[in-house]
DNA sequence: ATTGATTTGTTCGTATGTATT
DNA sequence: TAATACATACGAACAAATCAA
């Protein structure tokens, strides 16, 4: 997954949704660490500020929580919407 | 040798070139250790991140190699360009 | 075997300046 | 003007490995 600088959606949101997709796909379980800022810098070829904004955005969405000097982790499932049918 | 924060060249590159000059001057021989990160912090009055960037830059240039938990050392001379005259 | 100092590795937090749209 | 994004730099904390006493 890469990032498109010429898209309507800001790069930091693109990154946030890419990570979110991995979470939803079960590739990163609750309480597990998401990629560090510098990892995102390398993986997506963006500046660190942008990676930070992506994390801040994910935090804002309630998807993750950050522990200073430790990392950012996937949030506990809040209260699952019951699977349909 | 000190560092100029108002120069065009980034501080980390300035430090890298200062160390390189010492290597070229024979003050630090191949296989010998260059100053540690915390030494550079003290000597140049910069943050450790900046010292680390200087080392990373030198590594990138092929001037040095780093052994984790041991230090950073001057690279072996590749293939000397024959001394002129 | 233990302790303490040293050294690199890694992480998030913060600030400034610049450029582009 | 405001939002986005990049580069640089300092700060703080902790981990882990090495080495010497």
What is the straight-line distance between the termini of chain A?
Answer: 32 Å
Oligomer: homodimer
Fill in the CATH topology of chain A: Arc Repressor Mutant, subunit A
Number of beta-strand segments of chain A: 2
Structure notes:
The structure is a homodimer of 85-residue chains. With 85 residues, chain A is mostly helical. Chain A has a single domain (11-74), classed as Orthogonal Bundle (Arc Repressor Mutant, subunit A), CATH 1.10.10.10. Helices cover 41% and strands 9% of the residues of chain A. Chain A has helices spanning 11-24, 37-44, 48-60; strands spanning 64-67, 71-74. Chain A has a two-stranded antiparallel sheet. In chain A, a hairpin with a 3-residue loop joins strand 1 (64-67) and strand 2. In chain A, helix 1 packs across helix 3 (48-60) and helix 2 (37-44) packs across helix 3. The longest helix of chain A has 14 residues, at 11-24. Chain A is globular and about 40 Å long. The termini of chain A are far apart. The relative contact order of chain A is 0.19. The mean pLDDT of chain A is 92. The chains hardly touch. The structure holds a DNA duplex (21 and 21 nucleotides). Chains A, B: InterPro entries: Bact_HTH_transcr_reg, Tscrpt_reg_HTH_GntR, WH-like_DNA-bd_sf, WH_DNA-bd_sf. Chains A, B: This is GntR family transcriptional regulator. Chains A, B: It comes from Actinomadura rugatobispora.
